[in-house]
Design a protein that fits this description.
By secondary structure, the protein is α+β, with helices and mostly antiparallel strands. The protein has 2 helices and 14 strands, in the order αββββββββββββββα. Strands 1, 2, 3, 7, 9, 10 and 11 form a 7-stranded antiparallel sheet that branches. Strands 4, 5, 6, 8, 12, 13 and 14 form a 7-stranded antiparallel sheet that branches.
C-alpha cells in the first residue's frame, strides 16, 4: 500500500472540506439569514378605516395603516413614524409644516407606539389619525376649524402640531424594527371636501393616496434643498 499517496489524498480531501466549509460560512449562511429575516411592508386599505356620523351630522373617520411582516422571521420592536410633512399649494408648490416633529404612531387597540413582536407573515393595524368634520357652525374646536385631521400620537403635544386644517399634505411614513430594514411610503392626504386624485369619483371629505411620480420627484427635491439650506 502506498502510504504517501494515501497521505496526499487525505491532505487534498481535508483541503477541499475546509474550502467547502469556508464557502458555506461566507455565502450559504448569510443567504439563509437573509431568506429567513423579517421584512416589513407598509400600506393602507379602505376597509381598515371606520366611519361614524352622529345625530348632529358630525363625521369622524378613523384612518388606519396596514403593516405586514412578509418575511419568515419575527420582527421585533416595530414602529411606524410619520415625518417630513409638507403642505401642497397651487401648482404643486410645497411648504414645510412648521414645528412638526417626526412622530411615532399608535398601534390600533393599544396605547403604545411599539409593537414588541410581529411574527413572520403576520400583520397589524396602526392608527394614522382621526378625520373630524362638524356640520354645526359652532364647535368647541374653533381654533382648528370645524374640519381637521389629528394624527394618533401617544401624548398630545402642547403646541398641537399633530392637527391639520383643511388642505393637502405630503408625508413620509416609515415602518421600522430593531432587526429589519425599514419600509417607507410617501403619501398625500387631503383634509376637507375635494375630488380625490384621479378624478371620476364623488367628492370626498378625506383621502389618502400614494404620490404621483411627478409629485414624488418634486417632494424629494424639496427635501433635498431643505437639507442643504440648514
Amino acid at each position: 500500500m502506498n502510504y504517501d499517496a494515501l497521505t496526499a489524498w487525505g491532505t487534498l480531501l481535508g483541503a477541499v472540506a475546509t474550502f467547502l466549509a469556508v464557502l458555506v460560512a461566507l455565502f450559504l449562511e448569510p443567504w439563509r439569514r437573509r431568506r429567513s429575516a423579517p421584512r416589513l411592508w407598509l400600506t393602507w386599505r379602505d376597509r381598515d378605516s371606520t366611519r361614524e356620523r352622529d345625530a348632529d351630522n358630525h363625521q369622524k373617520i378613523f384612518v388606519r395603516l396596514y403593516v405586514q411582516n412578509v418575511g419568515k422571521g419575527a420582527a421585533q420592536r416595530v414602529e411606524v413614524v410619520m415625518g417630513d410633512v409638507c403642505q401642497v399649494f397651487a401648482g404643486d408648490s410645497l411648504k414645510m409644516v412648521s414645528n412638526f416633529l417626526p412622530t411615532a404612531l399608535i398601534w390600533t387597540h393599544s396605547e403604545s407606539p411599539v409593537c414588541a413582536y410581529l411574527p413572520g407573515q403576520a400583520s397589524r393595524l396602526c392608527d394614522l389619525g382621526i378625520f373630524s368634520a362638524s356640520g354645526r357652525a359652532d364647535t368647541s374646536l374653533a381654533h382648528h376649524g370645524p374640519t381637521f385631521f389629528r394624527c394618533s400620537t401617544q401624548t398630545q403635544p402642547k403646541n398641537e402640531y399633530n392637527y391639520f386644517k383643511t388642505g393637502s399634505y405630503i408625508a413620509r411614513l416609515v415602518a421600522s424594527a430593531s432587526n429589519a430594514k425599514p419600509s417607507q411610503q410617501m403619501v398625500m392626504f387631503t383634509v376637507g371636501e375635494h375630488v380625490p386624485s384621479g378624478g371620476g369619483q364623488q367628492n370626498a371629505d378625506f383621502s389618502l393616496v400614494p404620490l404621483s411620480p411627478q409629485l414624488s420627484s418634486n417632494y424629494s427635491r424639496f427635501l433635498s434643498n431643505q437639507e442643504r439650506s440648514i
